[in-house]
Design goal:
With 223 residues, the protein is of the alpha+beta class. It has 3 domains: 2-22 and 34-75, no CATH class; 80-114; 117-222. It is 68% helix and 8% strand. The protein has 4 helices and 4 strands. The protein has helices spanning 2-24, 81-114, 118-158, 169-222, and strands spanning 37-41, 47-50, 62-65, 71-75. α3 (118-158) packs antiparallel against α4 (169-222). The two termini are 58 Å apart.
Length: 223
């Protein structure tokens, strides 16, 4: 209470002095406004007033009061280079987060326009999987043909079983080419099976994102 009375008294004296000065000499038209009164609460909780910016409050906000006691302006803290860099980085991160949120909302709207309901999403998943299955089936068919071809080659090589070195070079090349082609087809099928998993995973992730969007859209339509 004593501290408050002391602050009020000091503030009243400053205001009175400012008022007296103002009464003694009114500012000429176009002249700069009268000096204000600066006030702040320092790190120890003391309320300080002065007729100029307060050095003890450089690290916190100060207020400049006009002669009538109204807040003329607020003075931001003076930061060290490190503090300013930290503030700038925090502001940059906040801007990035806001930008990411805006982009996420845009993607959600685009996703909802592409798949307005579960049936549309199921239909596109099925179409994507059908295409992959067709490619896998074609590769499996080719693998079957290579298997039949290999049987024919093995039948010919059977004649040279006792001494494989006597087998014609053309027959050995045919056997080697067949093995390489079969390996290529098996690798291709393996890749397509992985692609099928990726497609299913993508549609599963989209489904999880779309469920609340569909629910919101349905609720909005019902209202």
């Amino acid at each position: 209470m004593a501290r408050t009375r002391a602050f009020i008294a000091s503030w009243a004296l400053l205001l009175a002095a400012a008022g007296t000065a103002h009464a003694q000499k009114a500012p000429a038209p176009g002249a700069p406004p009268a000096a204000g009164i600066y006030t702040c609460t320092d790190a120890r909780g003391r309320t300080i007033t002065a007729d100029r910016p307060i050095a003890d409050c450089n690290d916190r906000e100060q207020r400049e009061l006009g002669p009538s006691g109204t807040v003329r302006r607020k003075i931001e803290p003076t930061y060290t280079a490190r503090e300013q860099a930290e503030r700038d980085e925090a502001a940059r991160q906040a801007a990035l987060a806001a930008s990411r949120q805006v982009e996420e909302r845009r993607r959600e709207r685009a996703l909802l326009m592409r798949y307005p309901n579960p049936a549309a999403h199921d239909r596109e998943r099925a179409e994507a999987l059908v295409q992959i299955d067709a490619v896998i089936q074609a590769a499996q068919k080719r693998l079957g043909e290579l298997s039949d071809e290999r049987k024919s080659i093995d039948d010919e090589l059977e004649f040279y079983k006792k001494d494989p070195t006597k087998a014609p070079d053309s027959l050995r090349r045919k056997a080697d080419d067949n093995a390489k082609s079969a390996a290529v087809q098996n690798h291709f099928i393996s890749d397509q099976m992985e692609e099928k998993k990726r497609v299913n995973n993508r549609f599963d992730e989209e489904r999880a994102r779309l469920r609340p969007l569909w629910a919101t859209a349905t609720g909005s339509a019902a209202r």
